[in-house]
Amino acid sequence: MIILVGLVVVAIAVLIQIDIADVHSKLSTNRPMLLSVFFPAALMALFNKMLFGFGEIFHSNVWWSRAFAMREGVGPKAYALGGLLWLPVPIVAGFLGLAAPALGIGISQPDTVGPLVAATLLGTGGALLVFVVVFCSLASSIDSLLAATSDLIVNDIIEPIHRQVSSGNRSRMTDATKRRASSIAIVCLGVLSWAVAYPNIGSLATVLFFAGPMVGSCIWPIVGGLYFRRPSPSAAGASMVIGTAVGLWSYFAIGWFVASLIGASVSGIVFGLLTWLAPDDFIFASLAEETP
Question: Which chain regions cross the lipid bilayer (predicted)?
C-alpha cells in the first residue's frame, strides 16, 4: 500500500506540471519509436520481463510457501486481488518513463527514472518519498525471501537429516526446535546475502536482469514436473543448466532485454526433446509424506 500511495503521489505531481498532449507531442517529435507498439526492443523487453516474472513465481519458494499456507478456496481470490492491486504499478511506472523527456529530465539508467522525476517535481520531499517506497519494496521482498528460504532449509534439509540421525527412527522435529533452526537459518542467510552484496556487483536492475536466464529456465521443468509423469530428472536438470548457460551468454553477447527470453526458450526446447527421447514414469503418490 505504501508503494501504491507513493507512485500515485508522484503521478499526480507529474500531471499537475505537464499536459498529456504535450507529452505525446514531444515524444512524437523527439522519440517517435517510444509510441510504436511494434518497437522491436520494447517487444523483446516485454516478453523478457514477462518470462522473468513467470519464472520468479514458479521457482521462488516465497510463492509456494504462501500457497501452501492458504486454506482451500483462498488462493485464487488472494492472487487475483493481489494482481489487481499491483496493476497500477507498471502503468504508473511506464507513464513516468514517458513523461521524463517532456520534463526535460535526462535519464542515464533505467532504474533511476522514478527517483529523478520525484526529486525534480517534489524536491527533497519527493526524494524522501521515493526512498521510503524503495525501502519498503526491498524490505517486503527480503523478509519474504529469508522466511521462505529458511522454511525450505528446515523442512527439506535439516528435518530429513534429523530423522536419519535420531536413533534410526522417523520422529519429527518439535515446533520449538524448528523455530530455533529457522532463526539460525535466517541469520546465516542474512550474513551470506550481505557478503555477496558487499563487493557492489551493480545496480538492482543489473542484478535482476543477470538473474533472468536462471529464473526463466525454471519455468518449463517445474510446469512439466507438476502436471506430467513423463519428464525425467535428467530432462529437468539439463534444461535448467543449458537454458541458463545460453541465456547468460546472450546477456553478455546481445543484451539484457533478450536474456530471459532466450534462456526460457532454450530450456523449453531441451526439456521437450529429452522428455520425448528419454521419457520417465513418475509416481506422484511417492510424494506423500509418511507419518510416524
Answer: 37-58, 79-104, 116-138, 181-201, 207-228, 235-252, 258-278
Q: What pLDDT, in 10s, does the model give residues 254-263?
A: 888 888 889 9
Cell of 11: 503521478
**Angstrom distance (rounded) from CA 46 to CA 245:** 21
In total, the chain counts a number of residues equal to 292
In sequence order, what are the residues at sequence separation of 6 or more whose Cβ sits closer than 8 angstroms to the Cβ of residue 219? 51, 54, 55, 58, 59, 264, 267, 268
CA 111 to chain centre: 16
Give the H/E segment covering residue 76.
helix 74-86
Q: Quick one: which of 142, 134, 86 has its CA closest to 111?
A: 134
For 182, how many CA atoms within 13 A lie in the half-sphere containing its CB? 17
Q: What is the DSSP letter of 155?
A: I
The 10s digit of each residue's pLDDT in 90-141 is: 888 788 778 887 777 777 766 677 777 777 777 877 778 777 877 777 777 7
- Alpha carbon 192 to chain centroid, angstroms: 20
User: Mapping DSSP to helix (H, G, I), strand (E, B) and coil, where does residue 231 land?
Assistant: coil
Gyration radius of the chain's alpha carbons: 23
Please name which of 84, 138, 201, 109 lies closest in space to residue 130, comparing C-alpha atoms: 138
